[in-house]
């Protein structure tokens, strides 16, 4: 007769053991998240430097292949990127500065115009109720841009932290590009017998992250150019600001494309009426089809792919935990987690701490016994 824990069913003991282990994991994750938030002045520059290094690494390798020293290759790649950004900013800054001030009023007018359209046949909705809801929504957006604004309005972006973070990010980017392989080799010394697995997993994570950042940047650039071309042909104003929004919206999959398209449609509705808005909507749908069936398979074929449901959950969690910074980092972090899980699944499963060795081997032994009995009956 069994006493104590042995008297409990196996499923009950397994559930209890799994429950407290799950609570420990949640507590550890919460403590880690708390530490990351309070060390954001250090953590965010590290993440930014890592992402920038994925973009500049091909240039550094190209320069090294032509005989440039490590330091000169890293500095040259960073200087070239700075000059390119400065040139683009100088070319489009005057247009953006003049037009961005008109963007929000035009979008608000588009919302009111959409309400007028819904109040007319064939919709015949209540015009007063629609306009009240639209005015209330616009007022709330003006007062508080929602949970996503916390990442911008909190102390994380006061001037001192921004300047410190920018300086740290620039220095780390230089050292990642110059001594990245040696730094990674030094970190592997702490992995002990798991060095081979740690190296393979780190390589896969960095490759997936590199592919994602480069791919999403190219996808955003092509989307912005195609939508900008469509807006010019249709005759919609504020083309350059909408292109800029479309480019950065690509870094927030699903939600970003929807918001950028909504802004374009609303501005087209105000400037040209329902027909222009419908044409812009059609152009956006066409561009999204090209993106989904052509750009993503070509530009992001080697990177990680996430189900849309996983992307939505990651974006929601990132917005709640980290504000707008969390939204931008949500999908890359989810991609890294996906790569880690894929690697773990490919490896032999470890010994389960929840199931006794005898219980784990019981199904195999019973299967072998059944096979032996079947063989004896046949003979």
TrEMBL record:
The keyword Transport applies. It is found in: Cell membrane. The chain crosses the membrane at residues 12-36, 42-60, 72-96, 156-177, 224-252, 258-287, 308-341. Its main location: membrane. It is a multi-pass membrane protein. Keywords: Cell membrane, Membrane, Transmembrane, Transmembrane helix, Transport. Signal peptide: none annotated. The keyword Transmembrane helix applies. Residues 347-379 are annotated as: Disordered. Pfam families: AI-2E_transport. Residues 368-379 have a biased composition (Low complexity). InterPro entries: AI-2E-like. Belongs to the autoinducer-2 exporter (AI-2E) (TC 2.A.86) family. This is AI-2E family transporter.
């Amino acid at each position: 007769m069994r006493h104590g824990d042995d008297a409990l069913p196996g499923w009950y003991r397994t559930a209890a053991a799994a429950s407290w282990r799950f609570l420990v994991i949640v507590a550890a994750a919460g403590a880690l998240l708390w530490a990351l938030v309070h060390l954001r002045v250090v953590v965010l520059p590290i993440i930014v430097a890592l992402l920038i290094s994925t973009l500049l690494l091909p240039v550094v390798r190209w320069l090294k292949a032509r005989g440039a020293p490590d330091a000169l290759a890293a500095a040259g790649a960073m200087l070239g990127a700075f000059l390119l950004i400065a040139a683009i900013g100088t070319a489009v800054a005057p247009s953006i500065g003049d037009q961005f001030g008109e963007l929000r009023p035009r979008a608000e007018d588009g919302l009111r115009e959409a309400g007028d359209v819904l109040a007319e046949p064939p919709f015949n909705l209540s015009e007063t109720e629609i306009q009240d809801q639209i005015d209330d929504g616009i007022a709330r957006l003006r007062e508080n841009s929602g949970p996503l604004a916390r990442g911008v309005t909190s102390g994380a972006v006061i001037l001192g932290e921004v300047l410190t973070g920018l300086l740290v990010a620039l220095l780390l980017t230089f050292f990642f590009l110059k001594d990245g392989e040696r730094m990674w080799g030094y970190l592997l010394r702490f992995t002990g017998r798991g060095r081979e697995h740690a190296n393979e997993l780190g390589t896969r994570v960095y490759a997936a992250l590199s592919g994602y950042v480069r791919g999403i940047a190219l996808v955003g650039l092509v989307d912005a150019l195609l939508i900008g071309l469509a807006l010019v042909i249709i005759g919609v104003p504020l083309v350059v600001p909408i292109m800029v929004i479309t480019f950065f919206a690509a870094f927030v999959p699903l939600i970003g494309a929807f918001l950028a398209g909504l802004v374009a449609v609303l501005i087209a509705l105000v400037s040209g009426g329902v027909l222009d808005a419908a044409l812009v909507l059609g152009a956006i749908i066409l561009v999204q089809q090209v993106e989904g069936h052509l750009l993503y398979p070509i530009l992001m074929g080697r990177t990680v792919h996430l189900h849309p449901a996983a992307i939505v959950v990651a974006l929601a969690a990132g917005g709640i935990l980290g504000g707008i910074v969390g939204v931008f980092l949500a999908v890359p972090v989810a991609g890294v987690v996906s790569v880690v899980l894929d690697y773990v699944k490919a490896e032999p499963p470890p010994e389960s701490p929840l199931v006794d060795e005898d219980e784990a081997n019981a199904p195999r032994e019973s299967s072998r016994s059944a096979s032996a009995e079947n063989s004896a009956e046949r003979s």
